[in-house]
Amino acid sequence: MARSGVQYEDVQQAIEALLAKGDAPSVQKIRDVLGTGSFTTISDHLREWRFQRDANRDLPASHAMPEPVLRLAEGLWQKAQESAGEVLASYREEADRRVAEIEAAMQEAQRQVEDAEQREAALSSHLAGTEQRLEQRSAALARVEAERDQWQERARQLEERLARSLQQLDKLQKENEQQGKAHQQALADRDAQQLARLNQEEQRHEAAEARLMSLLDESRQERVSAEKRHDATVQQLEKRQDNLQRQLHETQAALGREEKQHRETQWARSRAEERIDTMRHEQSLLQARIDDQKRHIDEQAARLRTLDAELMRRIWQPGEDGVVSRHSEGGAEAQEDSDSAAEPSESVR
Fold first, then answer.
1. Cα(221)–Cα(227) distance, rounded to whole angstroms?
2. Residues 6+ apart with CB under 8 A from 18
3. Residues 43, 2: Cα–Cα separation, whole Å
4. What is the DSSP letter of 319?
5. According to the model, what pLDDT value does residue 13 have?
6. Which of 16, 112, 305, 331 could disulfide-link to 98, CB 3.0 to 4.6 Å?
7. What is this structure's pTM?
């Protein structure tokens, strides 16, 4: 029995709202829209709404639908009603039996009621799916018929195109036959012209062949002469190469002798430079000895000049006879000293 909380009008408005959104009505969706109510109450109202909708659908359909489609839809709908009625009757009997058991035990009964409500929701969803599939099949049938009409129209267009193509093919075949005849005539004319040209070319070729043979004979003679000239030139070059080779050997020998002489000259030069260095060293030593002898001579000369001056001073000094004689003796001794001093200078010289 429906509870007093949710009325049939509320459920009907919720179903219309779901249909407006494009959703199939079910117990859970209706309860989500209402926000309250038990599954049993909502299921009863949904069952009543579907019964009224089915009753309205039993009215004669519009004659605009094709007869095959109408028969197919009626058959599918009849089968769906029979299946739904049988399933619904079995579920109702089981639900009544479980409600009696629930009245004996409240807790177990409450659980059984919830199970029944869930089964009712599943049945409602199954029925809604069946209706939706029926609608989809109807739409698919409509699409198939539309496609069939399109294919028929396309086939008609293809037949028209085929007829036009056959006409064009006949026309092209006739044109090809005419063009083939003209082409064969043109080929015959061209073959005749080519034959005449070939005859002329053969004559020209014969003349050219004779001229070519004469040119070949001249070329052979020129080649023989060129080979002879080449042999003579090769012999001259070989002789010249031998002379150059001999001159090269002679030049290499002279270069070897010059290098040997150059090495000997370099050795003699090094020896001469060593001798010059030795002589320079000896000359420096001799110059040092000469400088020493000159200094010694200068010292002796200075000493002699001093002695001469002293001697002259003593000789010309006035005094007694004895003194003068001593001075004379001193002068004689001084003269001897000067003579003895003069001897080393002569030896140095």
1. 10
2. 24, 25, 29, 30, 33
3. 9
4. -
5. 92
6. 112
7. 0.22
Look up tokens 């000067």; give the residue: 338
Give me the amino acid identity at 83.
S
CB neighbourhood size of 25 (10 A):
24
Q: Are residues 83 and 77 in contact, defined by beta-carbon separation less than 8 angstroms?
A: no
Three-state DSSP class for residue 271: helix
DSSP state of 35: S
Calpha distance 82→80 (Å, rounded) = 6
pLDDT number for residue 157: 92
* R_g (Cα) of the chain, nearest Å: 79
Among 59, 53, 88, 52, smallest CA distance to 74 is for 59
pLDDT at 239: 86
For the chain, how many residues are written?
A: 349
Our measurement of the distance from residue 111's CA atom to the centroid of its chain's CA atoms, rounded to an integer in Å, reads 74
Q: What is the dihedral of CA 52, 56, 57, 63, to 10 degrees?
A: -170
The position carrying tokens 């058959």 is 75
Cα–Cα nearest to 28, from 102, 135, 134, 128: 128
Q: In the structure encoding, which two tokens stand for residue 149, read together? A: 């009409």
Which residue numbers in the chain have pLDDT < 50?
1-3, 61-64, 320-336, 338-349
- In this predicted structure, what is the pLDDT of residue 30? 92
